[in-house]
Amino acid sequence: MSAVVCGLGGWLPPTIVTNEELCDRLDTTPEWIRSRTGIIERRVVSSGTATSDLAVEAGRRALRSAGFSTVGAVVLATTSPDRLCPASGPEVATRLGLVETPAFDVDSACSGFVYGLATGVGLISAGVSDSVLLIGAEAFSTLVNPADRTTATVFGDGAGALVLRRGRPDEPGSLDAFDLGADGEHSDLLAIPAGGSRQRSATGLGHGDEADWYLHMAGRAVYQQAVARMRDSTRRVLERTGCSASDVDVLAGHQANIRILEALAERLGLPGDRIVSNIDRVGNTLAASIPLLLDTATNGNLIPGDRVLITAFGAGLSWGSTLLTWPDLFVQPVDLSAEEETT
């Protein structure tokens, strides 16, 4: 028994924010942003739009891609849920018509979708579910300090989703080998200090530094950790599958920074043309990054039969990797050059 990818969908909010627009309020230039991140523009939610709204749209498209009207479970990977309590997954499932379907959230920041993939594989392999809808969705722009050049230039909003079904290990799309890891010693490198029980109990609700309610990021240290952790993680996955870097057709890495992806490819000995990327148009969308990347890459850069190496790194610190042969799917990828409309 194995879990097989059989559906894929993505969705982006319609509002585009360019580097030029950000420079109107930040002490920077469009070229500074592009040269250090690879980002030209990103999508952001409008007032009143929440993570669950993005998740529903991506989930609907993934179900349509798979030809499914129902699944055995829904897993939502997100770091920006609608509320601290309850989880957003059950509401997303209900809005998709999956009434009383088991649904829950996974919070592992930018690694959340890979952790969610491993969770979905576990549910199917254990016989708990015969199919799983896994969604990565973020409205993370709501948690970024608009006056902080380090973070306001990097993060965007969006959602992507995969459908997994029970299948054979030798099928294209089968997911078997994973490498997951975490290191809480460095948890402060990427963190939102306020909002949880630690700071609420220490200072009282509504007190303390307003900046603590937004993301804090130690950029240089995060860069070093990301390259090293994803390098080691991908190497372990390749060893477990009996593959080498030369067997990899596509490197689908978390879209945090183009320089991180290039450094990772260099350390793995992969030529640059094997990197797929959409960071220039969507920025860092955390848990939505990998499925959105796969969705957009199907528009010419990802074809059935490609051996795809997936890897991610994020707050926690956390990281994860997996390898699969890309299946033949019906996908209508999001159009990065146009505004997406709710379906």
From TrEMBL:
It holds the Pfam family ACP_syn_III_C. It is an enzyme of class 2 (transferase). Pathway: Lipid metabolism; fatty acid biosynthesis. It catalyses: malonyl-[ACP] + acetyl-CoA + H(+) = 3-oxobutanoyl-[ACP] + CO2 + CoA. Residues 238-326 form the Beta-ketoacyl-[acyl-carrier-protein] synthase III C-terminal domain. Its EC number is 2.3.1.180. One of its GO terms (molecular function) is beta-ketoacyl-acyl-carrier-protein synthase III activity. InterPro entries: ACP_syn_III_C, ACP_syn_III_N, FabH, Thiolase-like. Residues 255-259 are annotated as: ACP-binding. CDD domains: KAS_III. Keywords: Acyltransferase, Cytoplasm, Fatty acid biosynthesis, Fatty acid metabolism, Lipid biosynthesis, Lipid metabolism, Multifunctional enzyme, Transferase. Belongs to the thiolase-like superfamily. FabH family. The last Arg residue of the ACP-binding site is essential for the weak association between ACP/AcpP and FabH. Homodimer. This is Beta-ketoacyl-[acyl-carrier-protein] synthase III. It comes from Actinopolyspora alba.
